[in-house]
Task: inverse folding
């Protein structure tokens, strides 16, 4: 072998019972490189990484770590060989300090029964410095940290274990723009130290920025490995989905926005959340809302539907002032919110697919705050059937619990249940977060179809490419204020990003 | 998969039938008689009523610890009205139904507007309502209740004791609510995921208040039946009955985390408790052992549910 690899996997296969999860997959990792693993949900990325970290054992093929063949290794052995995995859901213990989290299970001992705190904090500061956390006290309780900082703590923990093979599973999904840049800086420093990084992500712009090589998996099969320099996002997407499908969804031929105002928000205020929010959405219009995480977009949406109280401000629907006190009023007035965290806010896991699907419809057609009326099983199941066909929802039965569905299909239920409830204004809050390309396109076409039917859409998203390809106008929110509303004709990435990160308008400077 | 479905559907009923078979073998001459079955139903009527209310409180991932005290207070007020010559049906309506609903509304409003867990609110409530009962009765029972009241509410109706009829009618009505109405679906949705229910348009605050009103009315009806059966209102009537109510709901398959459970299961749960007490009486087992057995049954049935009811 001319080249020495940190990890080498050849023709790796894995099956669970009768299901073939991986088929003849090849993968390698060099010291000092970022190897991106790309594929839709269920493509086999996590299974491959679970084999690497010793959680699963392979069914066929060969697998080497630093030139040594690994058969039937356990997670502990994989860790000893230098493999660390940083999960999407962080696994820190909130109640413990940073130092205790990093050295959990191997705290330095002073005597048989006591901990050497001095050494603990010194060692902690050393690894924290390597991930750029210099000004933070090692005794700080983890629950007081931001998500981005927690993630860095996880990386520090991996470094303290002398790991030189670090797997990062969608590390940027809950980070802001600045935090992502900082993470990439740290990744670059790790590369210089000879650490190999496996980077799992759905966001192609990041992949292009941080990666050295990229491997694509599809339905458990190995498609290809290419140098990042020799590829482009469109090519990657077509390898992922297996057909020519542009990563940037083609914007609809022409805007369907009418000249009638559907929603007008005037001087909406809520202390410490947002202030002086003014905007309007026309019938048939898709108004994008861009901003960094925590900019206040979700709070604005929740205040509009009455899910949270506002301090002041008026909301007009079709030029009439409406007083919306709770989501039931909003629903009655034809406004529905598709929330950002689908498992926590989107559906009831004790109800079946059809029972979840019919909930807004039943409420919309009842009175007295939804207390009256009988159920109508036939009509309810019909609604579910309509959703299944309109959104291409994959389920084995309408009587399944929504929890049994894959993430993308869960999202289809969460979106679909509003389609048959007589809604005129749809508020989508991050409708495509964490779902794969195929389902994303599904949801874009639904949004577009709604607009074509003269429905109005408020689309909150943190993916700028998505907003640029779907919206008619884009409102940029920074720290609770709308900085500027760009018509799509004059919108570009640089100006929007500038407004979202600085809170200042470039246009304003020029004018 | 099949095992789980069968257990969830027929588990409680299976245990009940098993107990009936065992007792029929152990004591064919006393246990397996029509009169004794009526007796079990009669003894279970009050438990069924308070358990049904409790079921709704647990269904929304809450609890109502005050059902025993509400039973005591409503019974006392009903007896007070009766003894002061108020019309029987008006007494039942005001002392049982309206007062029960009022207390439930107080519990529900406290839960919604303080944001405290129902456990805390109803724990406080339980001593407050008991205190009020002792206060208005001066800690003395009320005996002078018109005879008509006892003979109607605790009498027979075509050979079936009225308390059984009341419990069955309430159970059927509440089963209808849970199975056929949007109100019922909304309650399940609230129990399954409060935030999702709220964002879907369910007025979760109002719904919680309604659930506690249902619990209060059930306890109020139980209070009325209790007075009729005893022929008197005892100031300490219903003390500790929340245990029976919670146990019935849990044994009947209601999930403590909310969102899962059926009215029928709760009725069977209450009957299992009644059946065991009846059986141990027939077998001449002391009451101490009955309590120990009921405790074991609560833990045992939930353990069984954990192993058989999950995959």
Result:
């Amino acid at each position: 072998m001319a080249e020495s690899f940190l990890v080498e996997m050849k023709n790796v296969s894995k099956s669970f019972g009768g299901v073939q999860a991986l088929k003849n997959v090849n993968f390698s990792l060099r010291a000092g490189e970022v190897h991106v693993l790309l594929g839709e949900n269920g493509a086999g990325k996590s299974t491959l990484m679970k084999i690497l970290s010793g959680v699963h054992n392979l069914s066929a093929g060969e697998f080497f770590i630093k030139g040594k063949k690994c058969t039937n290794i356990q997670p502990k052995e994989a860790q000893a060989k230098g493999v660390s995995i940083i999960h999407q859901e962080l696994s820190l213990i909130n109640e413990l300090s940073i130092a205790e989290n990093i050295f959990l299970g191997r705290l330095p001992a002073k005597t048989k029964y006591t901990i050497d705190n001095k050494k603990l904090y010194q060692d902690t500061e050393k690894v924290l410095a390597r991930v750029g956390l210099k000004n933070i006290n090692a005794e700080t309780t983890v629950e007081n940290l931001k998500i981005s900082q927690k993630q860095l703590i996880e990386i520090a923990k991996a470094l303290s274990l002398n790991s030189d093979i670090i797997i990062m599973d969608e590390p940027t999904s809950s980070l802001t723009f600045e935090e992502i840049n900082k993470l990439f800086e740290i990744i670059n420093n790790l590369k210089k130290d000879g650490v190999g990084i496996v980077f799992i992500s759905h966001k192609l712009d990041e992949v292009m920025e941080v990666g050295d090589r990229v491997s694509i998996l599809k339905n458990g099969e190995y498609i290809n490995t290419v140098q990042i320099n020799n590829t482009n996002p469109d090519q990657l997407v077509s390898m992922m989905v297996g057909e020519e499908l542009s990563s940037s969804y083609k914007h609809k031929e022409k805007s369907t926005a009418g000249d009638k105002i559907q929603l007008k928000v005037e001087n909406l205020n809520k202390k410490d959340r947002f202030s002086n929010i003014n905007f309007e959405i026309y019938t048939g219009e898709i108004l994008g809302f861009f901003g960094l995480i925590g900019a206040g977009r979700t709070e604005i949406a929740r205040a509009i539907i009455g899910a949270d109280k506002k301090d002041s401000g008026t909301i007009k629907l079709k030029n009439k002032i409406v007083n919306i006190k709770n989501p039931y009023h909003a629903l009655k007035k034809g406004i529905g919110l598709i929330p950002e965290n689908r498992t926590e806010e989107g559906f009831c896991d004790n109800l079946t697919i059809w029972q979840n699907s019919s909930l807004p419809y039943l409420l919309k057609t009842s009175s007295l705050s939804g207390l009256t009326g009988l159920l109508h099983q036939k009509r309810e199941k019909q609604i579910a059937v309509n959703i299944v066909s309109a959104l291409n929802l994959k389920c084995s039965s309408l009587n399944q619990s929504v929890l049994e569905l894959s993430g993308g299909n869960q999202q289809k239920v969460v979106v679909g249940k509003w389609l048959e409830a007589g809604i005129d204004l749809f508020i989508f809050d991050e409708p495509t977060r964490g779902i794969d390309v195929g389902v994303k396109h599904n949801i874009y076409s639904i949004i577009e179809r709604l607009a074509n039917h003269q429905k109005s859409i408020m689309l909150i998203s943190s993916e700028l490419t998505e907003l640029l390809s779907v919206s008619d106008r884009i409102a940029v929110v920074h720290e609770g204020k709308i900085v500027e509303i760009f018509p799509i004709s004059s919108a570009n990435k640089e100006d929007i990003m500038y407004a979202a990160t600085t809170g200042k308008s470039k246009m304003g400077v020029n004018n | 998969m099949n095992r789980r479905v069968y257990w969830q559907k027929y588990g409680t009923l299976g245990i009940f039938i098993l107990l009936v078979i065992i007792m029929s073998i152990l004591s064919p001459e006393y246990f397996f008689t029509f009169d004794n079955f009526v007796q079990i139903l009669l003894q279970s009527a009050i438990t069924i009523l308070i358990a049904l209310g409790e079921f709704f409180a647990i269904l929304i991932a809450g609890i109502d610890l005050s059902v025993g005290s509400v039973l005591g207070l409503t019974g006392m007020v009903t007896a007070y009205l009766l003894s002061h010559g108020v019309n029987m049906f008006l007494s039942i309506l005001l002392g049982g139904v309206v007062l029960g609903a009022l207390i439930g509304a107080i519990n529900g409003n406290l839960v919604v507007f303080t944001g405290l867990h129902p456990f805390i609110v109803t724990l406080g409530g339980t001593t407050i309502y008991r205190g009020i009962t002792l206060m208005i009765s001066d800690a003395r029972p009320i005996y002078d209740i018109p005879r008509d009241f006892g003979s109607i509410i605790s009498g027979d109706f075509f050979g079936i004791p009225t308390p059984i009829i009341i419990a069955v009618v309430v159970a059927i009505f509440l089963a209808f609510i849970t199975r056929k109405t949007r109100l019922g679906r909304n309650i399940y949705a609230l129990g399954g995921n409060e935030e999702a229910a709220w964002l879907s348009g369910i007025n979760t605050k109002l719904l919680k208040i309604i659930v506690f009103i249902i619990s209060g009315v059930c306890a109020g009806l139980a209070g009325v039946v209790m007075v009729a059966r005893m022929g008197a209102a005892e100031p300490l009537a219903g003390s500790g009955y929340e245990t029976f109510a919670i146990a019935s709901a849990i044994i009947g398959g209601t999930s403590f985390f909310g969102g899962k459970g059926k009215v029928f299961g709760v009725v069977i749960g209450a009957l299992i408790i009644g059946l065991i007490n009846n059986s141990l009486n027939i077998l001449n087992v002391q009451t101490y052992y009955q309590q120990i057995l009921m405790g074991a049954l609560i833990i045992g049935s939930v353990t069984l549910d954990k192993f058989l009811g999950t995959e």
In short: Chain B touches chain A at residues 179-186, 188-189, 191-193, 195-203, 205-207, 210, 255, 258-260 (CB under 8 Å). Strands of chain B lie at 156-157, 160-161.
